[in-house]
Write a structure and sequence with these properties.
Elements lengths: L1 H24 L5 E15 L6 E16 L4 E5 L6 H8 L6 E8 L6 H5 L16 H12 L6 H14 L14 E7 L2 E7 L3 H7 L10 H9 L9 H26 L20 H20 L2 H17 L8 H26 L20 H28 L3 H17 L20 H13 L5 E3 L6 E3 L4 H6 L4 H26 L5
Parallel strand pairs: 3-5
Antiparallel strand pairs: 1-2, 1-4, 5-6, 7-8
Helix pairs in contact: 1-5, 4-5, 4-9, 11-12, 11-13, 11-14, 12-13, 12-14, 12-16, 14-16
Length: 513
Amino acid sequence: MEEEMADIEAQNEKQPEVAAIFKKANSAIALKFEDVVYKIKFTKSGFCGKTTKTEEKIILKGVTGKVLPGEMLAMLGPSGSSKTTLLTALGGKLGGLLDGNITYNGKSFSNSMKRNMGFVTQDDVLYPHLTVAETLVFTALLRLENTFTKEEKIMHAESVITQLGLTKCKNSIIGGPFLRGLSGEGNPLYFGERSQVMDYFSSIGYAPAVPMNPADFLLDLANGVSSNSEVPGTVKQNLVSAYKSNLANKLKSEVHEIDDPSQDGLNDKQVSRWATTWWQEFSVLLIRGVKERKHDSFSGLKIGQVLVVAFLSGLLWWQSDVSHLQDQMGLLFFYSGFWGIFPLFQAIFTSPKNAECSKRSDLPAWLKGSPGNFFLSLFVLLYSVLVAGGLGLAIGALVLNQRSATITGSVIMLSFLLAGGYYVTHVPAFISWVKYISFSQYTYKLLLGSQYKPGDTYTCDGAGGVCLVGDYPAIKKVGLDDQVLGAVALGIMLVGYRLIAYLALMRIGVAKR
């Protein structure tokens, strides 16, 4: 009890300072939308896919409304009534055939308005391992402008936590006046004060037969269910007609009479596109990514997986020396494949929610025991992990369906492994080009170069019982030279795959509904 009282006193002391921060961060915005119509076109296939025809479907049918500064608009309607579509349109995130007028302080949507607007998607895109406080603080650090100090941004996030009643769970891991709107199948059925909604429907002949929750009653009406024993289609038609005759014209008149607030702080010429600098965004995202990924990367399951693989590898290649050259080549190729497949599919499963693949390493006891060879091999494997993660992100962004992305990744990775130079040394000419785009081939080549030099020898049946490692048929085919070229090729892939993923996500857009 004493702790709660202390919290309340601390909050009261901060109220003037918090109010000043909110005033500094918020701009008054009057939202008006009139006769909003949204259409989509889709193609229907004929019999056996021989003929197709394009049809047009109207999702929003002339929706009108307003939200003044300090007000909150709540939309009530059954599933499929286009609530999300309307919200997406009002948030400036809906393209396509959108007609009607949507204005913010009398102006259309712009970059400056985007800076003053937040949009919460229907599906959660939160980091599951971050706490409530961390999530909101990172958002404040990214979204609030540089006119705020870091302390002010953090205070702003904490005040939001307090206002939402999340103080008790702020360290837990995630996993005003109201206006109500009611819609059905893209047609508005009511717009106005929530206190008047039941009186309005009673006035047009739709009142609950028995006392019931108003929200349940309104949803029943939107679905065409009425206590008057009417046909559902008739109920909907009557409600739409009543809205058009009783509310539509009055609402449009109110929209036209609204005086738009001052445009101070919302001028495109005065406001840059981004709230923070590139370096600030990078720093915040890096810290957030590390906090999130550490829970997954260092979980007992992941560590156990790596340790088991390392233990089995140590047993299978126990005390292997250069005389077992073929066995050592197999181990090198196994590691290049394992550390390629592992991060690739993890990136596919996390894309596009997460865009950063974690780094992993293990402690192998194999091949040359010198520190130089060990750390060089480790660097090559980490390099390969980053490249494979980039490829996984690109596949996940290009092929959004997870099942299709998994199949695509399997086919690509299998092709890269087969062309990597270990299983097949004499690749047919018509398909030999695959090895030049296979990161497995370059990883394998760099791993061989990290362990062997052309002048190294091994015991063989040749003259003198000693042969050059560089002359071993399988190694000679891959080659121990041009190591720099292999590193450059992986570097190009590292950047290229992530660039492809970025462009694919830009093409998709923030939201599609």
